[in-house]
Amino acid sequence: MPYSKLDRFKLKLKSLTDRANKIDITRDHLSPDAQVTDPTGKNAVILDETVSRIRHARKNKRPVMLTFGAHTIKNGLGPVLIRLMENRWLTHLATNGAGIIHDWEFAWFGKSSENVRANVAAGQFGIWQETGFYINLALVIGAYEGMGYGESVGAMIEHEELMIPDVSELEKVIKESLHTDTEKAAAAADLLRVITTFNLKPGLMTIPHPFKKFSVQGNAFRLGIPFTGHPMIGHDIIYNHPMNSGAAIGRAAERDFLTFADQVQQLNGGVYLSIGSAVMSPMIFEKSLSMAQNLEMQEGRHIDDHFMLIVDLAPSTWDWDANGEPPMDNPAYYLRYCKTFNRMGGTMRYLTMDNRNFLLTLLQKL
């Protein structure tokens, strides 16, 4: 007998416009031209090496991948990342589900970041109509159209609209694809369920995003640069909304993972930047690199000439370059992201630095 489950349709959803927010992107963003203090000592050496590696990679048409946690978006770094993309220093960006959400809320509302402690106590954390409705709808439509997680949301932001198919069209797709393209049939069925459950009218749904100039994923879509989303079920506030579709999210996120892995396969001579992501970035990188090595070795090649810069606020007293992996009785062993990346071959550097200072300094040096 199936276990019981919580009924999200009984939740009392409130409008995002009723939420108190900590960050206003029009006020709290970081200008790409803001002054920054140059790093000194070992940090300066590592940063200069990174700049040189990026220049060399782009000169030789090799990837420069940037993977980051949600605080990179919350810290108002959208304009800095957009300038890096516009100048073609980055070939791929990746973040987690929270990064996708904060970026969207900034684009649609101009504000983000609620009081978690107070809102959990009030039974209201993450239970917001617009965030759950629009992002979940973009994902179920994007999955039907064969798009990835970040691409689906980025397209909605850039175009400021979503196209709702007619029910008869979806029924026809399901019938015709059921024995020839089961993935398409299943994606159409997921979208059909959402449309009928929420009584959505077919046709163009206009969704203004008045602050989209601050959106990293919207601008990535505009520039044709892959922006991939790597969520985990239950980690993000869009799972609180009754429109949430795990199947659609799985399709879109799986596509993004394989897009990410495809870029990793091209990483010989390239650069991988991991900023403030203790779990998502190292986990998807190690699986992607393993698959990439498997494919490359079948062709007599091996990925060894890749440069990985790991940036976080946590200090590390262990010399990863000289000593390799620390023993299990050393606390540095449990600095998980360093341990993982140190096992990935190539060259790894660890930089203890605030993500605002790092990315702004990187942009200006480039």
Summarize the structure in words.
This protein has 366 residues and is α/β, with parallel strands linked by helices. The protein has a single domain, classed as Rossmann fold, CATH 3.40.50.10690. Helix content is 49%, strand content 11%. The strands form three sheets. Strands 7-3-2-8-9-10 form a six-stranded parallel sheet, sandwiched between helices. Strands 1-4 form a two-stranded antiparallel ribbon. Strands 5-6 form a two-stranded antiparallel sheet. The radius of gyration is 21 Å and the shape is globular. The protein starts with 22 loop residues before the first strand and ends with a helix. The model has no long low-confidence stretch (mean pLDDT 96).
Defining key terms:
11% strand, 16 helices, 366 residues, globular, 49% helix, Rossmann fold, 6-stranded parallel sheet, alpha/beta
Q: Can I get a quick summary?
A:
Helix content is 49%, strand content 11%. It is an alpha/beta fold.
Proportion of residues in helical segments: 40-55%
Sequence of secondary-structure elements: EHHEHHEHEHHHEHHEHEHEHEHHEH
Strand order of the largest sheet: 7-3-2-8-9-10
- Rg from C-alpha positions? 21 Å
If you average the pLDDT, what whole number results? 96
Largest sheet: 6 strands, parallel
> Proportion of β residues?
5-15%
Structural class: alpha/beta
Measured between the Cα atoms of the first and last residue, the distance is 60 Å
- Estimate nothing, just give the exact number of structural domains: 1
Number of helices: 16
Supply the CATH class.
Alpha Beta
Spatial shape: globular
CATH architecture: 3-Layer(aba) Sandwich
What's the CATH topology label? Answer: Rossmann fold
CATH superfamily: putative lor/sdh protein like domains
Task: Extract low-pLDDT stretches.
Answer: none
Number of strands: 10
